[in-house]
Structures
1.
Amino acid sequence: MQPGPHNAITDVPGILVGQVERVDAPYLTGTTVVHVPTTAVAGVDVRGGAPGTRETDLLSPVNSNGGVNAIVLTGGSAFGLDTAGSVMRWLEERGEGVRVGQGEYDVVPIVPTAVIFDLGRRGDFKARPEPSWGADAIAAATDGPVALGNHGAGTGARARSLKGGVGSASVRLDDGTTVGALVIVNAAGSTVDADGNLYGARFGIGAEFSHLRTPVEPPPPAVPGRNLIPGPPMNTVIAVVATDVPLDKAATKRMAIVAHDGLARAIDPIHTLVDGDSIFALSTRIADDDRPRLSVTDPLALGQLETVYAAGARTLSRAIVHAMLNAESVETPGGTIPSYQDAYPSAFPS
């Protein structure tokens, strides 16, 4: 096994990613869109105690929807859900969606969405994603490298006392199939252990994280009033895992379920009452691919399914590490949110 060419979710055929962000004060937020032009079978598993989502019921294996056109991950808490509307309009203008009439544009695009809480990170609760940011992000989507760290929905993200962000990773399995993950790390829990080591780094492939060392610095103190509101902090880790292995809806749902293991291995604690942790899973459709979709009820498919699921969870853990390694420190009214690199410089020996 080895990472794909970009070591990103865009290594999965059929997956495009676009991002927009705004960082001029008082803004510190953004939007990330995963576009699937040929559609994909999708599943979702929500485990956090404070989720913000849209169109997730459609993805249940007992419901009739066959696939999705895009997934939106965004800042702005529940206000950010408005970005999905502009993504739908962008797709409608191109005839992408569930066909509901005879006309070329008689479609209803399917765009499930999940949000993180990043309101007020620079002091102004109204400095949040505009509805048009979704369309801007999908218009910029490509199958190339994914910008990591302080980009897209990860722009205002944080993980306990450290700056969080967007991360991505991929793996090519021995049979030639690909599994990828994209994550927005905005956790109440920590991505580092008591010694300052990143929990997820042990899942690196080859020399991926071999340059890291156990740091000697003490952990950075938590910033008082980290969200600039009274009461407990509000957070959330949201992610997409994807594969080009053909899965049916139930098998794709199971992929999302197992992928939460990847969160638990890289963040502690996870799935708290102030997190809205949600993971989407996608099985892309490849042109001229007439292979039957794998089902969890087929005993002959179980071995391949377990291989894909395990790869998805480990790839998600690796994506979390890449988010933390690429995040950059930011100044806020509540103080500096340090990046992992700035908080633990000795983890990166020259």
Note: Confidence is low (pLDDT under 50) at residues 224-231.
2.
Amino acid sequence: MKNKIITFLILIVCTVFQAQEKLVSPPYLQKGDTIAIVAPAGILKNRQATILKAKKLAENWGLHVLIGKNIYNNNNHFAGTDIERCQDFQDALDNASIKAIWAARGGYGSVRILDLLDFTKFKQHPKWIIGYSDITAFHNHVNALGVETLHAMMATSLEEKPEEIIETIASFKNALFGDKLSYTIPNSSYNRTLGLSKIEGKMLGGNLAIQASMLGSKSQMNTDNKILFIEEIGEYKYAIDRMLQSLKRAGYFNKLKAVVVGDMSLIKKNSTKWGSSIEQLILDAIPNDIPVIFDFPAGHEADNRALIFGRKVKVEEDMEDVNLVFN
């Protein structure tokens, strides 16, 4: 009888744990739904035409668009004061008619408003939060709250050459409206797959510097049994190594299923040479028993494919390609 009770309690604990691990997926968008464009971080100086272009794109998909009333404000580095940027984001979180919140741009500043926001209504009625780069602060925070997010293009991505963002836009639309997301990328010679033909786990992550800045806060993610995505721009190799070593020492990599590496763009040259490629730097920092997949097209390049953070993804390798398929 005692053994039966213990077994029953274990089953309850396991069930609760699994429920907590399953992130909530916000409803996919449908024609007639409303999306809000807000600026939670960097200034949008002289970019009104870009925002209107993004508005037109969403409208062409049958969506209604609300633009944050403070979006063009200017407070030095930021698109308005912390309170103004927070107000636009909070209004979008609380408005039940808004089904997705699309960041106009990144830059820096999202972390400054995270703790000013009230996610109570959002948790009751989740909606998609969309962006990349500095918006990683929101991805990490909201994923830690138990809700999926969309790592995808922002409004300012439309400033790229149209022919270079065809897949970027298509994957964003597919993710937003619930079409299947699957990608095939060439198998890099740097890939470390450890002989595994298939890896499965929920994908989390984003910009490397922002992830490192979340350490020790309530926005830090639980990476156990996850597939971690990383990307970066405009850093020295030693700085990238420092971020990776900080995450490593904090136990970030201890129980990872795998790491998927996106774009490492505009790496700065230091007066003292690092001595290895950026790929080898990453391989040296990630524990040897963790698979690492390179060259996924997401990050600070024109070809920036959408990823659903918090969603289970299957990574399969063959001789020539690596396939990523979201469930």
Note: DSSP finds ten helices and 13 strands in the chain.
3.
Amino acid sequence: MRMRNLWPLLMAGSIGAMGAQAALAEDYQLLVGSYTAGQSQGIYRLKFDSATGQIDPKPLQVVKSDNPSWLTVSKDQRHLFVVNENGPGQKDPVGRVSSYAIDPKTHAISLINQVQSLGNEPTHSSLSVDASHLFVSNYSVVEDPGGTLAVLPVGADSALKPVVQMSSHPSSRVNPERQMSAHVHSTVSSPDGHYVFSNDLGADKIFVYRFDPKANPQLPLTAATPASVQLPAGSGPRHLLFSADGKHAWLTMEMSAQVAVFDYRDGKLEQTQMVDLASGQPTSDKAAAALHASADGKFLYVSNRGTANQLLVFAIDPATGHLKELQRRSVEGDHPREFSLDPSGKFLLIANQKSNQIIVVERDAKTGLLGKTVQKLPMDAPSDLKFLVRQ
């Protein structure tokens, strides 16, 4: 009799719990950048279910664009900046950068304008902390003219203005196949916005600049002191990420498949640790790429391409920023150029560029470990993944 009386209460509690879980789940929108030499048309806007980890294969929008390989979303999520990684021998041989407006309610994307990057194969962009300038990294596959950093002012309407400053440096020439000229791979601002760090794969250096557009609008970057950070010969720096508190930074070095850990203060990076992603493995296993930290700052995730095709999980020491390896997981595909943690923190999405898939895997928020694969979505040459959340 008591059980009969309790049953409705137990059921009510169960339904309440399910309702709470449902309330926590949310449909987000996912932007996918891609290379367009094959079947891809450009940028795809997709629906993502954070309860199941499923991407709806039917796009909400397809934005036709040539090689929109890297996507930069403004902090307020009202604007999107895209590098068009064009160059000699491609359908469009001119490197370009595009600005789009994002509708705050629907997240629909509409073109504002497009300008030239004044370099070949622009592969990365980032906004200054005050959103007044866009830093574009022209990688440039060929030796002549080589890679450059381009600085573009951003108008009040987020329209891009023509390049106002270019910067380039001599290469290290350590690797005769890949380092005979500069190859600027990415450029990011310091957390305080006063410095800019440009990673040059061809030079084996991070170049450091002071950013002060008020002092000289036509030359907003000036060399800092010291003007560069020397890295191991032939290492090929790629992407730099600052910790949320701004005290540490991590750098992937593509050619040596390593992650360098730094202390950061007032424009200066001091290396404190070097982590091997493919120690003792053949050169074909060495192609470090993307790195992202979890929202709570406890875990760092790094992709290694080549023949390794792995995602590595590290625990972050909160005091030092040092890394402790926790897991190596196959990406179940080829060439994980980029990846992204979904806003709920329960899933990690991997853009396997050469196997033409986006892989969704479960993630344990407490341990940081990656679990089973929940979806393999066919997508031609995906190169970047960015989430949009409701404001």
Note: Residues 33-388 form a domain with the Methylamine Dehydrogenase; Chain H fold (CATH 2.130.10.10).
4.
Amino acid sequence: MKAMQLAAPGGLDNLKITDLPAAAAPAAGQIQVRIHASSLNYHDLGVVRRPGAAADGRIPMADGAGVVTAVGGGVTEFAVGDAVVSTFFPQWLAGRKVPTDFQLVPGDGMDGFARESVTLPATSFTRAPKGWTHAEASTLTTAGLTAWRALVVDGGIQAGDTVLVLGTGGVSILALQMAKSMGAKVIATTSSTAKAERLRALGADVVINYSETPEWGDAVLAATGGRGADIVVEVGGPGTLPQSIRACAPGGHIALIGVLTGIAGAVPTLELMRKQQILKGLIVGSREQQQDMVRALEVFGWKPVIDSSYPLERMAEAFAHQAAGKHFGKICLEY
């Protein structure tokens, strides 16, 4: 089978297409899946680009969507022909005992989905939403479930809430779409006039240009009559967190997701405390949460926004496009 491997010490130039033996027949409790698509996340970019981040020969990509081609003994949840999508933490099936490392995350601590076929425990997958393409389904493993958990599981979104999303990456766009489907008002930020129009076309009620308005937290307060956003999907990290705290309503929820601006920085703790906000870190979610999300997505009338799609052998080009930061929505691989 065709696969992409990352040679030590890493870097886009060390992504090599290769032929590997076909996936093994499934044992009891396992399924074999023909992978047809994956989607790029900043986690994947970090693993591929950071020297020494992955073992020599690692197969990248945390997200995988495809079709079940064989079923092992005792598996009743899936049948041959079912469309499935992978889970980010295959060991986190449900509950509050969250993983704290990436040792079992595909494409990081173990081989991922940049290959045509895999055989894994059935619990490493969920059903894909009915009627979705493999590329669309592949956006859910990381970005989709992150947005869902930020809004629903942790944020407790209600109709009439105001949600703030930052930028136009995969998590932010999916959060915008989900929030609108659940009756929320959405405020979005961008530095691009063209992207601002696309955000409005997707349903953003207010768009703020953060290049023109560096104190965009105050602009969010102005747009909400001084109240602020009930939920902030914070993908930037330390460089944007002070403005997110400013923008968030008293008693509001800030879902701390990203490290796009770094891994540490100053936090205006007094304002956070005075406004009695919840600041909660999260990394994707559990299999049970993904199953809940898939059921919900099947009743919504939209599909993920796919910026562009590349064949597996052009993975390095896809990552370069992602690193440039010009994309809108998700970048996918299809094979």
Note: The radius of gyration is 20 Å.
